[in-house]
Write a structure and sequence with these properties.
Length: 100
C-alpha cells in the first residue's frame, strides 16, 4: 500500500477549470485500486502555523501498489484532460509516505 499527500496550488481565478479536471480524475482513482481518503480545502483561518502559503486543496490518496498509481497517471481518459490541470494548477507538492 502506498500513501500520497498532495498540496495543490491553483492559479488565481482558475478554480472552475481545476474542478472540471478533478471531476474526471477523482473517479478514476478507484479504477486503479486507489482511494481518495481525504480531500481538504483549507482556509487561512484553519491554519495554525505555516512557513509557506496555504494550498487550495490537500488530497490524501492510497493505492494498493506503485503499479496501480502508475496506471492512474497513464490513464488515457485522464490524459485527455491534463490540459485543464496545466491551465489551473500553478504548482503541486506530492509527498509519498507509509503507515508507521
Amino acid at each position: 500500500m502506498i500513501y500520497l499527500t498532495q498540496l495543490i496550488y491553483i492559479r488565481e481565478g482558475k478554480e472552475e477549470i481545476f474542478h472540471a479536471f478533478e471531476d474526471v480524475a477523482i473517479p478514476l482513482i478507484q479504477k486503479y485500486n486507489g482511494k481518495l481518503l481525504l480531500r481538504i480545502r483549507p482556509s487561512a483561518e484553519t491554519i495554525i502555523h505555516t512557513e509557506t502559503e496555504c494550498p487550495y486543496e490537500i488530497h490524501l490518496i492510497s493505492f494498493e501498489t506503485e503499479k496501480d498509481f502508475d496506471g492512474f497517471k497513464k490513464d488515457e481518459g485522464r490524459k485527455k484532460f491534463l490540459h485543464l490541470k496545466e491551465q489551473s494548477v500553478r504548482s503541486a507538492l506530492l509527498i509519498q509516505g507509509v503507515v508507521l
